[in-house]
Amino acid sequence: MQQRLKPLEIKRVRKDYPQVNYVKEGIQYIELNRGCKRQCEFCWSDPNYKVFPVPKIESNYVQIWGENILYDPDIKEKIIKLGEQRVNKKVVYYGLGQGVDYRLIKKDMIKLLSENRIGLINNKKNWYKRIKIAWDLGIEEEGKIKSIIDLFRSCGYRYVGIFVLVNYKVSFDDCLYKLAKIKQWNCGVDDCPHDCTKRQFIPTYWEEKRYRMFRALCRDHNINLGKPKEVKPNSSHN
User: Fold this and answer.
1) What is the pLDDT of residues 201-230, one digit of tens each?
2) At 109, which helix (H) or strand (E)?
C-alpha cells in the first residue's frame, strides 16, 4: 500500500542507513536489497537499488525485507547460502515481506525458493509454504499471472496470494474482473490502496464507497478460501 504524503515530502530517494538486521520476539529481520529499478509511477520505492550481503543468521525464523529481490544479480547464490544455514542444529525458515515480481521470475528460481524454504512467516513464528505476487497492471496481464501461479503450484506452493492495486488508474470494474479470476484460480487476495491506507482512505481515482465495497468482497473471499463448497441435495432423489 502507499501512504499519502505532503507534497514536499514526496521523495523516492531515501537517506542512506545501515542494512536492516535485528531480532525481535524470536524472528530475525534482514535486508538483502533496498529499492527497485522499475520506478513504477504508482510506487515510492527508492530507484537507487542497493544490495547487501547475507548477514549472520541467528534465528530459525527470518523475515526478509526488500522491494524487489530478483534484481539482485547474486540472488540465487544468496538464497542457496540462506538455505544452508543452521541455528541450534536446526534448519531456518524464511519469509518474504514483499511479493515477488512475476515479470522477472522463472521456474528455476521458483524451485530454488521452494528448496530453500522461502515462504511466508506471521508474527507468531508460523511458517507457511506460501508466496505472494502483485497484479498492479491491467487485466491484459491475466495470462502471465495465471502462468506464474501454475509454475508456483508445480513447485509445491499450493497457496498463492495476489496483491491488487486499487484507488488507481485500473478501474473498479477491471479490479472486479481481477477478483473474479483470483476466485477462479483459488488464490488469496490483498487489496492495496494507492496513496493512502486501508483505514484512512483518500479518494484519488475511486470513490470511497467503491473501495469499501471491493475491500469487503476481498475479505469475504479470503474468509471462504479453501472451504468446501456447499452441495445442495438433488430434490429428485427425495
Assistant:
1) 888 999 999 999 999 999 999 999 875 444
2) helix 107-115
Which set of grid coordinates corresponds to residue 93?
525458515
What is the domain partition of the chain in residue ranges? 1-128, 130-225
Cβ-based neighbours of 99, under 8 Å, separated by 6 or more: 131, 132, 133, 134, 161, 163
Angle between helix 75-84 and 107-115 (nearest 10): 20
Residue with cell 471491493: 214
Question: Taking the alpha carbons of 67, 72, 78, 83 in that order, is the dihedral positive or negative?
Answer: positive
Q: Which residues pair with 91 in a beta bridge?
A: 86
CA angle (78 as vertex; 74, 80 as ends), nearest 5: 125
What's the pLDDT tens digit per position in 90-138? 999 999 988 899 999 999 999 999 999 999 998 788 999 999 999 999 9
Alpha-carbon distance values, 30 to 19, 20, 201 (Å)? 7, 5, 30
Among residues 79, 101, 105, the alpha carbon closest in space to that of 92 is found at 79
Extract the C-alpha cell encoding 126.
508460523
HSE of 55 in the Cβ direction (CA atoms, 13 Å)?
Answer: 21
CATH 3.30.750.210 fits 1-128, yes or no: yes
Residues 161-189 as b or e (16 or more Cβ within 10 Å = b):
bbbbbbbbebebeebeebbebbeeeebbb
